[in-house]
Amino acid sequence: MTDMSAMDKQEATPVVGIVMGSDSDWEVMRHAVTVLEDFSVPYEAQVVSAHRMPDEMFAYADSASDRGLRAIIAGAGGAAHLPGMLAAKTIVPVLGVPVPSKYLRGVDSLHSIVQMPKGVPVATFAIGEAGAANAALFAVAMLAGQSPDLTSRLSAFRQAQRARARAMSLPPA
Ligand code: RP5
């Protein structure tokens, strides 16, 4: 079993890839980065645009499994084909994050990602930062099956969240 928290973040081989169609997606996708850092999960993050750099996108997907990636979190906005195209080229699970778009506010991104035809799944999350954070939490849950340390950290995270909700009183302070 892999104890990911014990790995040196700088040197550990990434097990989660975070990709996005543009640096303009960073403000949303950085919430996935924050979660993985909080759980000490080795990750890599980079821009991989499906329509601006399709050759690199294919190479990324082709090499993902051999490089040790166990999940790919892919965020894109508009006609958001990045998650689906990655999923078409790798059996590494792809977690899609719809990034809010200028005119349609990310509903276009959501529909583009979630409506995959049967046979090539993309696990699709909420539009925006909640989706980015939840995709990372989902990746942590996937990895926790092989890591007792991650399992206990994830349980502690849920417990802390529950405690905060139970401590809430109305009206809010
Ligand atoms: C998509 O187009 C990106 O994922 C981004 O959400 C959107 C706009 O990209 P920029 O024009 O801001 O680079 O490919």
UniProtKB/TrEMBL annotation:
Record's keyword annotation contains Transmembrane: no
GO molecular function, one term: 5-(carboxyamino)imidazole ribonucleotide mutase activity
HAMAP family: PurE_classI (MF_01929)
Pfam annotation, one family: AIRC
GO biological process, one term: 'de novo' IMP biosynthetic process
Catalytic activity: 5-carboxyamino-1-(5-phospho-D-ribosyl)imidazole + H(+) = 5-amino-1-(5-phospho-D-ribosyl)imidazole-4-carboxylate
Official protein name in the record: N5-carboxyaminoimidazole ribonucleotide mutase
UniProt family annotation: Belongs to the AIR carboxylase family. Class I subfamily.
SUPFAM superfamilies the UniProt entry points to: N5-CAIR mutase (phosphoribosylaminoimidazole carboxylase, PurE)
Function: Catalyzes the conversion of N5-carboxyaminoimidazole ribonucleotide (N5-CAIR) to 4-carboxy-5-aminoimidazole ribonucleotide (CAIR).
Top-level taxon: Bacteria
Keywords carried by this UniProt record: Isomerase, Purine biosynthesis
E.C. designation(s): 5.4.99.18
